[in-house]
């Protein structure tokens, strides 16, 4: 795992977008795993600008989102399909048939979960998975005690998660769906590369636990310590409780891999 500390949230978002753009330029038919949440808005803004100003081409890219609320159709403003359409899809030249999210309205939810895994496999697996982190340490909607080998499935959401995401539903946690379909921790770990982005002081405590604490299913993001190619990008505020910050800064300043991003 590499932890890259950027001075500001804006720089952290820019770096995440730059790494995605580089992956897409290297492999135009990239299979890109996408995340939602406020943290990602800046990243998608940068990608849209790169498409507009530098013709970054998404025409052969395939995308798979981490999760979707159960019971919400794509027209619902709180759905992640809606979020993705507004934040990214309508601003770039992704083919609609190449964008995948679990169907939260599926009649047979377990069949939908299996089909989602099959679609990922049929595309050759995820090359690069973008991730945020929830206040309880979840990635996707893998709430505490999610098995580290779990696959795409239904998951009940914690009170903390529904509170964290209430803003998209008019502020009332009760209006946030109680269940979601999410890629499993095992599904995420199968991605060839993971990129976790966390910004802001309210992520500092959980981020330090996930990155430097013991691997535990109580904090699904801690499973990323098992991944052979995981980059964690943070701003100074989110890095505030990292014990190894000095060493992480040295990596960014000295390792050749990061030269173009200093
Ligand atoms: C939701 C998503 C997660 C995301 C998290 C963080 O719970 N399911 O994938 O990481 O929100 O959200 P934010 O970026 O708004 O803090």
Structure description:
The protein has 262 residues and is α/β, with parallel strands linked by helices. The protein has a single domain (2-261), classed as 3-Layer(aba) Sandwich (Rossmann fold). The chain has helices at 9-26, 38-54, 80-87, 109-122, 159-164, 185-189, 204-212, 245-254; strands at 2-6, 31-34, 62-65, 67-69, 99-100, 128-131, 153-156, 179-182, 193-198, 230-235. Strands 1-10-9-6-2-3-5 form a 7-stranded parallel sheet, with helices on both faces. A 3-stranded antiparallel sheet has the order 4-8-7. Helix 1 (9-26) packs across helix 2 (38-54). The longest helix has 18 residues, at 9-26. The protein is globular. The structure holds 2-amino-2-deoxy-6-O-phosphono-alpha-D-glucopyranose.
Task: Provide a quick synopsis of the model.
The protein is an alpha/beta fold and 262 residues long. The protein contains eight helices and ten strands. It has a single domain, classed as Rossmann fold (3-Layer(aba) Sandwich), CATH 3.40.50.
Task: Supply database-style keywords.
262 residues, alpha/beta, Rossmann fold, seven-stranded parallel sheet, three-stranded antiparallel sheet, 10 strands, binds 2-amino-2-deoxy-6-O-phosphono-alpha-D-glucopyranose
């Amino acid at each position: 795992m590499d932890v890259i500390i950027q001075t500001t949230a804006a720089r952290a978002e820019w770096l995440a977008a730059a790494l995605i753009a580089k992956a897409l330029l290297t492999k135009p038919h990239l299979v890109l795993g996408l995340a939602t949440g406020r943290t990602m808005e800046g990243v998608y803004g940068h990608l849209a600008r790169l498409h507009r100003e530098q013709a970054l081409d998404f025409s052969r890219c395939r995308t798979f989102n981490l999760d979707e609320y159960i019971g919400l159709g794509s027209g619902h403003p709180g759905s992640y399909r809606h979020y993705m359409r507004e934040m990214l899809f309508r601003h770039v030249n992704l083919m609609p048939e190449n964008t995948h999210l679990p169907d939260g309205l599926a009649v047979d939810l377990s069949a939908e979960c299996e089909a989602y895994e099959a679609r990922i496999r049929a595309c050759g697996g995820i090359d690069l998975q973008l991730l945020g982190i929830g206040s309880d340490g979840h990635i996707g909607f893998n709430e505490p005690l999610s098995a580290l080998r779990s696959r795409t499935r239904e998951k009940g959401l914690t009170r903390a998660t529904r509170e964290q995401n209430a803003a998209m539903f008019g502020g009332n946690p009760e209006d946030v769906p109680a269940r979601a379909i999410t890629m499993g921790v095992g599904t995420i770990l199968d991605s060839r590369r993971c990129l976790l982005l966390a910004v802001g002081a309210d992520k500092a405590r959980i981020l330090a636990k996930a990155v430097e604490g013991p691997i535990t299913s109580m904090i699904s993001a801690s499973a990323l310590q098992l991944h052979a190619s995981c980059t964690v990008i943070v701003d100074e505020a989110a890095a505030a409780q990292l014990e190894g910050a000095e060493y992480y800064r040295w990596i960014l300043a000295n390792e050749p891999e990061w030269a173009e991003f200093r």
